[in-house]
Amino acid sequence: MRTLLIGAIAATGLTDSAGAPLTISPHDFRRIFVTDAIMNGLPPHIAQVICGHKNIDTTMGYKAVYPAETIEAHRAFIARRRATRPSEEYRTPTEEEWDAFLAHFEKRKVSIGTCGRAFSTPCVHEHACVRCALLRPDPAQRDRLEEIRENLIARIAEAKREGWLGEVEGLRVSLAGAEDKLAQIMRSTARASVDLPVPRFREEP
Ligand code: SF4
Question: Which of 28, 29, 113, 177 could serve as 137's disulfide partner, Cβ 3.0–4.6 Å?
Answer without folding.
Answer: 113
